[in-house]
Structure formats: C-alpha cells, structure tokens
Amino acid sequence: MKVTIFGTGYVGLVTGACLAEMGNHVLCVDIDVAKIERLRRGEIPIYEPGLEAIVRRNHAGGRLDFTTEAAPAIAHGELIFIAVGTPPDEDGSADLKYVLAVAASIGRHLDRYAVVVNKSTVPVGTADRVHEAVAAELAARGADVGFDVVSNPEFLKEGAAVDDCMRPDRIVVGASSERAVALLRKLYAPFNRNHDRMVVMDERSAELTKYAANAMLATKISFMNEIANIAERVGADVELVRQGIGSDPRIGYHFIYPGAGYGGSCFPKDVQALERTAHAHGYDARLLGAVEAVNRRQKDKLFELISRHFDGRLAGRTVALWGLAFKPNTDDMREAPSRQLMEALWQAGAKVRAFDPEAGEEAQRLYGRRDDLVLCEQAMDAVHGADVLAVVTEWKAFRSPDFAAIRVALAEPALFDGRNLYDPAVVEEAGLAYYGIGRGRSLRLPR
Ligand SMILES: NC(=O)c1ccc[n+]([C@@H]2O[C@H](COP(=O)([O-])OP(=O)(O)OC[C@H]3O[C@@H](n4cnc5c(N)ncnc54)[C@H](O)[C@@H]3O)[C@@H](O)[C@H]2O)c1
Ligand SMILES: O=c1ccn([C@@H]2O[C@H](COP(=O)(O)OP(=O)(O)O[C@H]3O[C@H](CO)[C@@H](O)[C@H](O)[C@H]3O)[C@@H](O)[C@H]2O)c(=O)[nH]1
C-alpha cells in the first residue's frame, strides 16, 4: 500500500520503517530539514536498537523515502499518518498545534479519497478536530474530496520500539467508516498472521484507551514508589515486597519496579494531559494528580539521599552518575530523572562526572560545556575523581560492576542505587555504603 507519514520522530520513523519492511511504499515527511537530510544519507537521528538496518534496507530497496515537501507526500499516500509531537502546553493539556497544522496541510493538498490516521497521542475529541481542520481547507478551495479520520494510537516503548511495532500486543483502531477500517485491516494484515490483534472501536474510546494505558502503567510505578518510601521508614525491603506481590497473577511482576521516578516523553505528559481533560469536563481526577505528585517527589529521592549522606554540605563534592537516559536502550533524556538530580546537585554546588552508553551526546546538546559537568567515555572514568556514585538508569552494563574497583576509586565510598540493581549485602561487603530505594536497612535476610 502507499503510505505517508508526517513526523519522523520515534513513532513516525519506526512506524514508517516497519510498514516498509512489510512491503508497503512509505514516504516520510518532516519539517526538520537537517533530520530529513540525515535520513536520506542513511543516518538515524535517534538511538533505537534494530532501526538502522531496517531503514537502510528499505531506503535502498526503494520502499522508504524521506521528504520535507507536504504536497507530494499527500499525493502519495492512500493512508496518511499523523505522528508529530503533542507536547504539553502551559497548563499541561496536550498542545495540538503540530497535529492541526498537518491536518490543515492535508486539506490544502488532498485531491482524492484518503484515510487520515492519527497516531500521535491526542486528547479525546481530536479526531473530530482533525476532521474539521481538513474539511475547512477543502471547503476554502471548493474541493469536493472524500476522506476519513481514524484514531490509531501507538503503544511502542522506546528502546524496544522496532520489536513492539513488529509484534504489537494490540492494534487499536477508532473509526466510524467501514471503508477506512477495511484499508487499515489490509495494512495491518501482515502483523496479524498469528492472531487478530486489531481492536476496532469508536474514535473517542480509542483516544482514551491510549491515555488509560499510560496512566495505568504510571500508577503502578507511583504506587510502588509509595510502598518503597513506606518500606524505608518501617525497616522493610521493597524488593522483597515487590516479589511477594508480583507472584499474584492479578498484580503481576511487570512495571512494579520502584526507582528514581518515571521519565520520558510519554508518562509525565500523558498523565498530566488526562488530568486536564478530566478537569475540562468537570471531573477532579484525584488519583492521576497523586500519581504525578508522587513521581515528582520521587525524582528528588536520590538527591535527598546524597544530600543527607553529606549532612547537606554538597558544595565542592563530586558525584559520579551512571545513566543519563530516562531508561535503558535509548538516548532520550526527556524528563529523565538524571536531569532533576544533576540540576539539584549543581544548585547545591556539587560537580557531576557522568557516563551513559548512548545519551552522552544528548547531554552535551542539552547542557553544553560547563565546569560542573564532565561527560565520560567509560563508566569507570566517571567514578575516578568522584566522592560517591549514583546509578540512575538500569542499563545492563551497570548490572554487575566491580565493586572493589569502585571502592578504591571513590573518595568517600558510597553507592546510591536509584534502580535497586544491587544486593545491599554484596555492596557493603565490598566496603561501600549502600543506599537504595525503599530498602529498610534493618532487614537483612539469610540467603
Ligand atoms: N516516543 C514514544 O515512545 C511514543 C510512543 C507512543 C506514542 N507517542 C506519541 O507519538 C507522538 C510523536 O512522538 P515522538 O516521540 O515520535 O515525537 P518526536 O518529537 O520524536 O517527533 C516528532 C516529529 O514531528 C515533526 N513535525 C512537527 N511538525 C511537523 C509537520 N507539520 N510536518 C511534518 N513533521 C512535523 C518534528 O520535526 C519531529 O521530527 C506524540 O504524540 C507522542 O506522545 C510517542
Ligand atoms: O517498573 C517500572 C517500569 C518503568 N519505570 C520507568 O518508567 C519510565 C517509562 O518507561 P517505559 O514505559 O518503558 O518507556 P516509554 O518509552 O516511555 O514507554 C511508555 O510510553 C509510551 C509512549 O506513550 C507508550 O507507547 C509505552 O507503551 C509506554 O510503556 C522510565 O523512566 C522507566 O525507568 C519504572 O520506574 N518502573
């Protein structure tokens, strides 16, 4: 099929590449000229495992191309995806200016029936607004062209985006037109070979499904962080509690890892946006407000532990920091807990020596050159010359470090484990003070 995708970010590029891999002819459009030039040269602007090979193969095979021109892109696709950003505006609601700009542009150029497929995460009612924006432009030029708008939210996770896109749990399609549903069934048929993953519903339910999924996952994390903070105070170990509750299949082991708080481009903004939607409809969504508040507080947790360790005297101290990305397998630092921690440390007069397997360049872009930040090439380089070590992101490379070498390298051997990666007893045996999240220090069970 002929597919156009507006937006070549995490969602647009991955979707475009995977649809091309399934044999479709995909044209990706972006207003970012530099991004499109890089993509045409076969360079991938983001770090996403497996993506580069698929993009290069399909670009070379003539099934995937990139442009900055809206008109030929709209002429190309029988399915036109919108996968542009929906950042929060001043009050936390989703800002639809990019989505509506694409919709208007479709209306200005469309000259035969097409399905406009919205993949961006958008508030309930946006399909109607996109419909109106396209229709207004068609009317303005007196064009009598049929089109449908479908909601098709995306559930991929960064770091596993290609895999999620190739093997989705479900494909949610919100549509009121049979013609549009039939075209989407055809497009997604190769992804449904094993069993039908398509869940067809109305547009509003599809839009709400996306927010409900993210809000549920964020709620699980904040819940566990709340339990961790209780565990710390009562002398229990939240890691044992986690295993104790996860074994109940109604609860499950997934997404109940306590830590330094959730970050990324989705959970923080989507929980907030859903709360704003509820508010706009006269409902006070208290649970969502609490999920958000618990997370904001949790992102301060590592700083509090480090500050307490030094009795609040952080000026002149140096903290080694492992992990800048908001989670492993990405270079994305949007809303990353590492940022809140670094900024608080700087404010308190401390310096940071940081290492991340992929996000060093992004940190450089965000913070530029400054005296209180050294970006290191190796994990141990960050530790040498630091007083203490804080682990913020659970990259696999950090799972089993040489604690003895870390103890020798640190001036004040202490490890702040923001993801509960380590066994406190093992760390302490190596001669380092251990601080985790919700690990009451009075409890040490025999192994
Ligand atoms: N990142 C994720 O893991 C993820 C997962 C599911 C859903 N989402 C949602 O998908 C949407 C896109 O997210 P993302 O992370 O891919 O964003 P992103 O910021 O990585 O990419 C968005 C792209 O859209 C481009 N763009 C903006 N206006 C444009 C226009 N008029 N025409 C063409 N391109 C334009 C930007 O230049 C940018 O390259 C958001 O609504 C997000 O909430 C993201
Ligand atoms: O038990 C857990 C699981 C995750 N996290 C944190 O939660 C954040 C988000 O992680 P994850 O969900 O893996 O990453 P995203 O790429 O943001 O993906 C989420 O957001 C996307 C955008 O909407 C959705 O498509 C995905 O389904 C949804 O998982 C990260 O900071 C993680 O460190 C925890 O603290 N504890």
From TrEMBL:
Catalytic activity: UDP-alpha-D-glucose + 2 NAD(+) + H2O = UDP-alpha-D-glucuronate + 2 NADH + 3 H(+)
Pathway(s) of this molecule: Nucleotide-sugar biosynthesis; UDP-alpha-D-glucuronate biosynthesis; UDP-alpha-D-glucuronate from UDP-alpha-D-glucose: step 1/1
Stretches that traverse the bilayer: none
Ligand binding (substrate): 155-158, 210, 255-259, 263, 327
Alphabetically ordered keywords of this record: NAD, Oxidoreductase
Molecular function terms from GO: NAD binding; UDP-glucose 6-dehydrogenase activity
One Gene Ontology term from the biological process aspect of the record: UDP-glucuronate biosynthetic process
Protein's recorded name: UDP-glucose 6-dehydrogenase
Organism of this sequence: Rhodanobacter denitrificans
UniProt lineage: Bacteria, Pseudomonadati, Pseudomonadota, Gammaproteobacteria, Lysobacterales
